[in-house]
Amino acid sequence: MSQKRLLENIFSLGVLQFANYALPLLLLPYLAHTLGVEKLGLLAFSISLMQLFTVLVDYGFNLSAARQASILRNDSTTLNQLFAAITALRIAFATAGLFILYILVQTIPRLHTDANLYFASYSLVIGNALFPLWLFQGLERIKLASLIQIGTKLVAFLSTFLLVEGPNDVVLAALLQTSTNLVAALISLPLVPTAIGVTRIAAPKLEHMRRQLKDGWDIFLSSAAINLYTSSNILILGALTNPSTAGIYHVAEKTVRAVQYLFEPINQAVFPYMSKLAQDNPQAALDFNDKLLKWAGAVSFLACISLAITAPWLVPLLFSPDFSESIQLIQAMAPLPFIIVISNIIGKQKLLTFGFNQEFSRIILRGAGLNFAIFPLMAHFFGALGAAFANVVTETIIAILFVLKSRKTHFPTR
Description:
By secondary structure, the chain is mainly alpha-helical. It contains 19 helices and no strands.
């Protein structure tokens, strides 16, 4: 991949990232006013629960399968088999998840009360299972995938303003928020044979599916740990407190994560570039990583300072007075974008691209274990503010462990 193509992919992913996170953030004030604190908290709880199911569906394929697709782009037969195996596995996982959700809704009274909300939100999981973003990334056709996703998200964004009018529309709000990838999948799947270079998709084979499960295992563990402790935090807080507290925390976390996700296009686009460079010219890959660490680290640090300073002005401007407590939470979590950028550049872009999958996974698992140990305690005794500090402590420890591991690791230079 040339640096020109790298920049094009960063731009395309940047526009997509804007649609993924800036549009929901722009929509958040309207939902806060329209749904109210309690219903917004319930919506956030539902979507967070669905994100746990997407962990199972993704299985790390967004990294492992994208890397294979990049390598196999000129071998249409093998690429066809790869697509069939990955898609079959993701559909199987989504089906199993729906069965699990049905059992949970039937056995847990709190979930049963809002069963329609949770089943509507499950479209998020089905959409993630069917939309082949990993394939478009591997084939460097990010523009096409981005255009499709952005179009569906804009339609959902405008439809929410037109159709969601009050607290009773929370199920409709959930459906509009979570169904965009499902619609994008229905549009993009007919384009897959042409993108691969075949006339029809091959039937999945068990041996290929087993191989993909094995190849993606280490990445799945780390991806699952990351998603579990980030997505479950609001679930834990909601269970230990109340929907209103969860709603206030949700607003603060969404605001901080929006800043963090501004750097995600760089993270996604650089990974295949670094993977190839690490094989062809390891020293050049290490030099590139050092430069990326300096520049992205400096920019993200300034972004964190700006976020902390502008929070008292930003929250009253965007949200109702009911969310004034979110100001303190945003300021407490303001360091997260800088911390996570450092973690991604050293962990994913360096350790993973040089093949240290198990080492990467172990650090993430330790961080997840730490989060599950301290988050419930901090949330129980100190509420939303304690939850915010627990979040920052977890990410800081993970970043420190990545830095220490990187310094102790001998990376090849040729």
